[in-house]
Amino acid sequence: MNAGLFLSTCKGLVSQSVDLKALSGHYKDLAAVEVVDDFYDPISMSTMLRLVEEKHLDAVVLAGESPMAYKEMRNGDDLFRCLRERGVNANRIEVVNLKNMVVRPHKATPQALQTKAEVLIDVGLEKVKQSSEMGTVEVSPRKAVAIVGGHAMSYVLAQHLLDAGHKVFLLNRDTKVTIPDGALPHVLPTMTYAARHERFHQYDDAVATDFFGFTGDYALGVKVAGKDLELQVGAVALAPESNPSVVKELQALFHIDVDDSGRLAAKDEATARSQTLDRGVFVINPPRAATDDLAASMLAADATGAMIMSLLSRQEIQHQVAISQVKRELCGGCGVCVKTCIFHAVTLEGEPRVSHIERRRCRGCGNCVTACPASARELVSMPSGYLSKAVEIMARYAPAGGGKKVLFVGCEGCGYSCLDRAAEAGLTWPVTVMPLRVVCGGQIDMQLILHALVQGFDGVVLGICGEGCCHNLIGNVDLERRVNLLREVLTSRGLDAERVHIVATCARTASGCVESINSFMQRLEAPAGSASGQAAPRLTVRMTS
Fold first, then answer.
1. Would you say the pTM of this structure is higher than 0.85?
2. Which residue in 412, 427, 500, 504 sits closest to 461, CA to CA?
3. Which of 65, 152, 510, 543 has a 20 to 30 Å separation from 132 between CA atoms?
4. Which CATH superfamily does the domain covering 144-312 fall into?
């Protein structure tokens, strides 16, 4: 493998605490090593892309910025697109979070920070080394959009889409659309325009029940007045919803976050108010203080229409297929994966019966990988061999001054992102907490936890989605069940089961996550026999936004 390492000073934030020149010298045997000012800077990006081409790199580690930034910031993933265009497979681009997992959260010596940065980079290099190439699917986007929720702004959005030649399906949960009296005179002409349009279809008493597919090519299951219907659409737009139970339904179905005010969350409130983490799912998102303001609502609908039309105007949309894989030679056809997958992405096919993955339904959560008794499943985006090796690399970290060492395994949905946001907010935790990012709590195998304890970690904290917040619906519940069984085994062997701790939180809660980690660390540090040392914390600390 021809791997390159790019280190970002993050405009001086990282370089003031970590000697990036020394780090680059440590990795001089790689095909390319370069320190740049900021990965988003046009000069820095051009330098990196030139080196990728000149050195024929097929793997890249980006050390500096948070991996969450690339997902949440407007056009934050453009660097990834440019790397893929130059032949670097998506699964061989890894991000090492020096900013929020090394520099910001720790009050430690320069040497402790330097060593931790090196360890995390070693983990990133191991990730690209062990990752197989991820497949891609090219989709010709459907010129059809589903708008979920009957509001004044829904019709304004519909008008834009109809004018652009798209088919529009409006799903209204009630039996009729209610528009505030003050707004009705202003939007009635637009409502009439949409209602009379041949490409507009409104369904009242309609509830979305199923959703799967790729960006530009989705299947949306709908129950209309008790009858089932499937719509083929290229994108979905969600209108504001005030009912908390409906918000939870939409959150789970469309795989998006809820913000701290209980609304469906945009990708970035500041710069990407219409977008979510799924490129084909949008929100009509007026500013919080102006939710009832007609002008702000109309502007939000206009903006959402522009984003959807920009997406669907493309000739092709490339989708990375980060699904679970089947090792056919090991599969015994037991069907455990079928029962485990809540997204109905797995069937048994052929003779003999072998597990089969429906790519359009699989969300790549990894729950089936953990559940498989024959180890016949592997998650392409996060191989189990890499996770095991990552634990071994992190276990080598031993800063001067010692301290209890804890492995923090955080899911991308909530656990890791909460810790990331905590660092952004200026919160701190011990430098001996080593972060390992996974896709979902359901992917965490008990063997990985035992491996961490055997390797010398004093404790393991599992940062997962809280109740009702899981991006993969039941990944958190399945993990808690497995951990409770593990605790019984540890206790029966005379081992301290409280060395395994779950922090269940929601994506945008930061302080509670850090408080729980620090409390757990204090218990581990307490002298044997002391009151704090004897008091076992609860396994799960639940926090909701």
1. yes
2. 500
3. 65
4. FAD/NAD(P)-binding domain (3.50.50.60)
